Amino acid sequence: MANPDKETLEKWHKDPNNWKWGMFYYNPKDPRGMVPKKIEWMGWTINFANRKAVLLFFGFLLFFAFVFYLITSKK
């Protein structure tokens, strides 16, 4: 499904089967990489079923780990 309608997106968001441990969104049918968190006012999270979003997430983690390493290794 390339462009799901708003009703379908809302149904997916409310489906507890799409939330692993209540906080990780995992829905292979949803093409979006970023989705509102379960409690929407808390911001956004990634769709862990979207490969590009997961790669971007781990890329950011590696970048920040590298920056942290550079900062702490200076003596």
Task: Provide keyphrases for this structure.
13% strand; 75 residues; two-stranded antiparallel ribbon; two-stranded antiparallel sheet; 2 helices
Q: Structural class, from secondary structure content?
A: alpha+beta
Outline = elongated
Average per-residue pLDDT, rounded, comes to 91
Q: Number of folding domains? A: 1
Low-confidence runs of at least 5 consecutive residues: none
Total helical segments = 2
Taking Cα atoms only, what radius of gyration do you get, to the nearest Å? 16 Å
Descriptive overview:
- It contains 2 helices and 4 strands.
- The protein has one domain.
- The model has no long low-confidence stretch (mean pLDDT 91).
- The protein has a two-stranded antiparallel sheet. The protein has a two-stranded antiparallel ribbon with strand order 3-4.
- 43% of the residues lie in helices and 13% in strands.
- With 75 residues, the protein is α+β, with helices and mostly antiparallel strands.
Summarize this, please?
With 75 residues, this protein is α+β, with helices and mostly antiparallel strands.
Q: Could you give the topology of this structure?
A:
Layout: H1 6-14, E1 19-20, E2 24-25, E3 34-36, E4 44-46, H2 51-73
Antiparallel strand pairs: 1-2, 3-4
